[in-house]
UniProtKB/TrEMBL annotation:
<dbReference type="InterPro" id="IPR011856">
    <property type="entry name" value="tRNA_endonuc-like_dom_sf"/>
</dbReference>
<protein>
    <recommendedName>
        <fullName>UPF0102 protein TU94_23735</fullName>
    </recommendedName>
</protein>
<dbReference type="GO" id="GO:0003676">
    <property type="term" value="F:nucleic acid binding"/>
</dbReference>
<dbReference type="InterPro" id="IPR011335">
    <property type="entry name" value="Restrct_endonuc-II-like"/>
</dbReference>
<dbReference type="Pfam" id="PF02021">
    <property type="entry name" value="UPF0102"/>
</dbReference>
<comment type="similarity">
    <text>Belongs to the UPF0102 family.</text>
</comment>
<dbReference type="InterPro" id="IPR003509">
    <property type="entry name" value="UPF0102_YraN-like"/>
</dbReference>
Length: 120
């Protein structure tokens, strides 16, 4: 795994831990749909199915991770979520949503993990 892949994996680990700490259940990680793309984390929040996109950046050097999800990426996430639901059965009674988790790793100090619900 290269440095970028390791950074992304670390951010996804932090994100999964944060979701678990807030009472969500992580169902699957890094679900791939052929060449269409990947869902970083699939979780359950009560009776809602949650598809999480995780973006990790080192502090100060790049745009904020939340800025990386543009309309095209949001549309791809919606299509991937639909495929996941088709593959695994119907959506739960609470429906589904797409969340974004941004992880910023400062040069010093603890990572900053932001969770925004219902972005797409």
């Amino acid at each position: 795994m290269n440095a970028r892949g390791a950074l992304g994996r670390y951010g996804e680990d932090l994100a999964a831990r944060r979701l678990s700490e807030t009472g969500m259940t992580v169902l699957e990680r890094n679900w791939r749909c052929g060449r269409t793309g990947e869902i970083d984390i699939v979780a359950r929040d009560g009776d809602v199915l949650v598809f999480c996109e995780v973006k990790t950046r080192r502090g100060g050097r790049f745009e904020h991770p939340m800025a990386a999800v543009r309309p095209e990426k949001a549309e791809r996430l919606r299509r991937l979520a639909e495929r996941w639901i088709q593959t695994h059965g119907a959506a739960p009674p609470g429906g589904a949503r797409i969340d974004l988790i941004g992880v910023v790793l400062p040069e010093r100090g603890a990572p900053v993990v932001e969770h925004v619900r219902g972005v797409a």
